[in-house]
Predict the 3D structure of the following.
Amino acid sequence: MKLSSQQVNHLSKGDQDVANVIYALLAQNQQLIDKVDRQAVIIEQQAQELKELKAEVHELKRQLGQNSDNSSKPPSSDGFRKPINSRQSGGKKGAPKGHRGKTLEFSASPDAIVVLPLTDCSRCGASLADVESNAYERRQKFDLPQPQIIITEYRAEKKCCESCGLEQKAAFPERITAPVQYGDGFAAWTSYLHAYQMLPLERIAQLFEDLTTYRPSEGTLLHMLQTMYDKTASLEDAIRSALFEQSVVHADETGCKVDNKNHWMHVVSDSNWTLLKVHASRGSEALKDIQFLPVYKGDVVHDGLAMYFKNEYTFSHALCNAHLLRECKGITEHDKHDWSRQMTELLQESWQLARLSRAHEEPIPEDVIQTICHYYDEILQDGKREWSSNRTAHTGRKQPKAAKLGERMIRYKDAILRFLWDAHIPFDNNQAERDLRMVKVKQKVSGTFRTLSGAMIFARLRSIISTFKKQQRSLLSSLTEALNDQFTF
């Protein structure tokens, strides 16, 4: 405690000097204390910054290590990464057991028969020209003929009516509108090469020239695609109507470039039907314009995006477990969490059990389902401690990936495990992913869509061709029939 000036004056000269020294030491000590406090604040700030930088480095390492095996990234983003072969070495080679296989078989009605004569005996040289053959050994060659253009000329008769003197002519077929034009075969092949073989217009034109010596212009090819697009509107409506009648459908979306702007290709499909639509939006605005999911009342398998969980939607949810397994793998690899490893094992073993029960056409016993659900809850309860320990490192930043995944699995437990008690629900959303994969192939082979109308044409034609393929229809003949309003599902 510091003495007052009056008290100091009562002190002797020596005591005053001692007091002044003490005061100086106390002031110096206070300065040191203040300095230590300031340094402690700086150290605390630096420690917090170091913790945040460590979390940021960890997240960057995660992003660099993400691929299609341990995240929701598509395989097309893997680049030149060598895929990991999950098959065990030493197994039997060749097709799996039960695979029917396919081989070229003899034709009962060959188009041409070439008899190879035997004229001389190979041992004594005697002539066999007059000896009648008593048997044949047959071999057949299957080959493609040289492509040939078939040119059909239509001649509309002109006549004058002897009764009234009216000059008139016969009507040309509806689709014969120009003095010289390409036929329906070219239009069907163009649609097939564009939406199934994924060729760009220039290569389609080059292929036609190589095969036939005739090269349609890109403008002509675009006109053919537009005509096919217009003619198949009713088939797209039929696909939409058929999907409305299905109890379970798959939904997904993938990004695509249209006129150098981000767009999204949306799909709704099942094993027999495919509906693709392109839209500038990924979310609920697109779903509203596509006019399917907002009014659908069945079960939808999807990847868990928030846009699917609007309260006004009347469909039921089933989440893709393949997505969850990949995310769990990423958490196990990058965060070293044990709960994600346990969850991976639980989901995989549960699906094996579900497949076995479906093969025997028997439901999984209720007590088994309850045991799985209880273990599911226990894993996530233990996982809370693991992902909560990382929250302090993310103060002021986005939620850790492990926490987001774990809390999503808590929130949507029933939609994740529905495959256990509902045999109609698949384990994953691979159907929709397969139906979207060709959109990525199209962009890799042909580049981005230059116009929105071009993207819309591709989406409709791909929907129809994919549906033809699923239903084992002849693609070219079906497209030709559709062009002439003769095809129905």
